[in-house]
Amino acid sequence: TKSLYRYILFSRISILLGGQNPDYMLHGTGVKPGSDPKRPLSGDGFTVAPEDAARFLSCYCSGHCPEDATNNTCDTNGQCFAIIEEDEHGEAILTSGCMKYEGSHFQCKDSPNAQTRRTIECCSTDFCNRDLQPTLPPPIPGKPQLWNAHLLAFLISVMVCCFTLVAITVVCYYRYKLQTGRRRYQRDLEQDEAFIPAGESLKDLISQSSTGSGSGLPLLVQRTIAKQIQMVRQIGKGRYGEVWLGRWRGEKVAVKVFFTREEASWFRETEIYQTVLMRHENILGFIAADIKGTGAFTQLFLITDYHENGSLYDYLKYTTLDTQALLRLAYSAACGLCHLHTEIYGTQGKPAIAHRDLKSKNILIKKNGTCCIADLGLAVKYNSDTNEVDVPLSTRMGTRRYMPPEVLDETLNKNQFQAYIMADIYSYGLIVWEMARRCVTGGIVEEYQLPYWDMVPSEPSYEDMREVVCVKGMRPVVSNRWNSDEVRSSIAV
C-alpha cells in the first residue's frame, strides 16, 4: 500500500512539476536528455529514491521511436510494449516502443477495447517486445460499421422508391380499367337501346312476350332493362339481400339485389320465374334478371313489378279488414298458390311448383287489395313425365315459424311432390289466421300478431317450434268471436 501511494504521488508530482504529457509515456525513455541515466530525476530535477526507480531496459521500437533512437532501439526505466490498432480505413497497424515507468502499470493492464479496436501488451526484458503479437478484439456483434449504415440507408431509399412506383402504377392501372369499363358499359348501353324502341312500356313488352313461349322477355331485352334501371332508394332488406325502388323510363319497378353468397337463390328464382306459362295475376310479375358488374363488384339483379302497399305482413300491421277485404286477400292468395301447384300439360306445359317458404312477408298487396306471391328462391318443381322432384341446391331453409310438423320432425318424404304441396297448405293456413285476426267483427279486432306469438320467442329455434307443434300438438289460438261470424267460423274449422 505504501509503495502504491508513493508511486501515485510520484506520478502526480512528475506530471505537475515536469509538465509532461501523459502520451509521452509511450514515446519517451523516462530519462531527461543530458541527465545521468543511473540517477533518474523527477520533472524538476529531484532525485528519485532508488527503491522507486526500475532498472533500464532496451526495447525494440517501431512507430514509437524517440528522435535520438538508433537501430530501432530505445531505452526506458519502465516496460517494453507492442500495440495493435485499427486505422480509419479498417487496417490493423502493429507498432512497438518504450513505455515510461510512470503509469506503465495502468497502461499495460488496459483491457482490449472493442469500441476503439485497440490492444496493448507489455513485457519487462530487453527487446522482449519483438516477440509480442497482440491481436485485435472482435467487433461488437450487431453493431453495423459506418459503410454498412450508408448501404442500409441506400437500400431503404431504393425500396421506398420502388414501392411508391409500384403503388402509383397499380392505382393508375385500376383507374384506367375503371374508366375503360365505364366507357364500354356506356357504349353497350347505347347500342342496346335499339332493341327497345322509344315509347315502349313494360306492359307493352310483357304483353308481346306473353304471345310467344310465355317464359318472359328475351334475355337481351332483360339485360338492356337491367342496365337502364335507375336505383331510387332502398325499401327492404332480408337474409338474401336488399330490395330497392327503381325506375325504368319513368315506371316504378322493384329491384331485388341478392348478396353474392346467395347466387344459388338468385339463379333458382330467375329459373322459376322464366318457366313457361308462369305468369299469373296472383304471382309477382317478373320483368328481368341480370348480373351487373360495376368493375369493383358484381350485383345479382331480379327486377319485378313494384307494389307500394308492401307485404301482407306490413299491410296487416296498420290496416284492419272487413269481411269482403278478408275474402279478397284469402282468395287471391289461394289462387296464386293453386297456379303454382298446378301442372299444365301440353307442348309448352308448366311443371307443378311448390313454394316451400310461404309466409306473410313473401306475399305482396296490390292496389286492388289482392295478393301476389313472391320470393320463389326455394321453390321445387315436379314433372309428372319423369316423376322427378327438382329440389334447388340453395343452402337456405324455410322460415321456422311457418314450418309444418313433418318438416320440423324430419318425416317429410322429399321424393313425393304431394308432401311439399301439403307443407304449403299448412303455411297458407297460418297466413289466413293472420288475416282473420285483423277482420273487424262487431267493432272488435285483435292486434296483429305472428302465428305462435304467445308460445315461442320472437326468433324461435327448430327445437322451440318442434316442442310446440310436434310434441305438444299446439296450434294458434282461435278467438271466440270467430264463432259468431259465418266466414270466420268456417276459417276456424
From TrEMBL:
Record has NAD as a keyword: no
Binding annotation for ATP: K256
Ranges for domain GS: 200-228
Domain of life: Eukaryota
Major subcellular location class: membrane
Every Protein kinase domain range: 229-493
EC number: 2.7.11.30
UniProt subcellular location: Cell membrane
Record keywords: ATP-binding, Cell membrane, Disulfide bond, Kinase, Magnesium, Manganese, Membrane, Metal-binding, Nucleotide-binding, Receptor, Serine/threonine-protein kinase, Signal, Transferase, Transmembrane, Transmembrane helix
CC cofactor: Mg(2+); Mn(2+)
GO biological process: cellular response to growth factor stimulus
Membrane topology: Single-pass type I membrane protein
Record's GO cellular component terms: plasma membrane; receptor complex
SMART domains in UniProt: GS, S_TKc
One of the Pfam families matching this protein, by short name: TGF_beta_GS
Enzyme class: transferase
Family from the record: Belongs to the protein kinase superfamily. TKL Ser/Thr protein kinase family. TGFB receptor subfamily.
Designated name of the protein: receptor protein serine/threonine kinase
UniProt source species: Sinocyclocheilus anshuiensis
